[in-house]
């Protein structure tokens, strides 16, 4: 297994801090969020602290409970960036022809 880079570690910790803050903003206990997401409290703790190897599925289950999953998915949409739109436009054909 590859080692986790320092940058990735920091990002995981930051994401976990944000998840914890969203949970508190909603006034939800860790146990309630874990139950609603269908995960254990230990798994939620791992997400909130940025430790362990939590599955993306479990992370998104928590994000969905907190109401921010759509924002996270939207933030990764390449067509929301200038670079993504530029490359998408380059990949589109100049003309579309009707098949014979």
Automatic annotation (TrEMBL):
Span of domain HTH cro/C1-type: 19-72
InterPro entries: Cro/C1-type_HTH, Lambda_DNA-bd_dom_sf
Pfam families: HTH_3
GO molecular function, one term: DNA binding
Protein name listed in UniProt: HTH cro/C1-type domain-containing protein
Record organism: Promicromonospora soli
């Amino acid at each position: 297994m590859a080692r986790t880079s320092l940058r990735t570690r920091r990002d995981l910790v930051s994401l976990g801090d944000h998840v914890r803050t969203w949970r508190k903003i909603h006034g939800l206990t860790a146990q309630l969020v874990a139950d609603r997401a269908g995960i254990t409290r230990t798994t939620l703790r791992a997400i909130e602290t940025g430790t362990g190897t939590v599955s993306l599925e479990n992370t998104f289950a928590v994000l969905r409970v907190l109401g921010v999953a759509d924002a996270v998915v939207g933030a990764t949409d390449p067509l929301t960036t200038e670079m993504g739109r530029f490359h998408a436009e380059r990949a589109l054909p100049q003309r579309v022809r009707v098949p014979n």
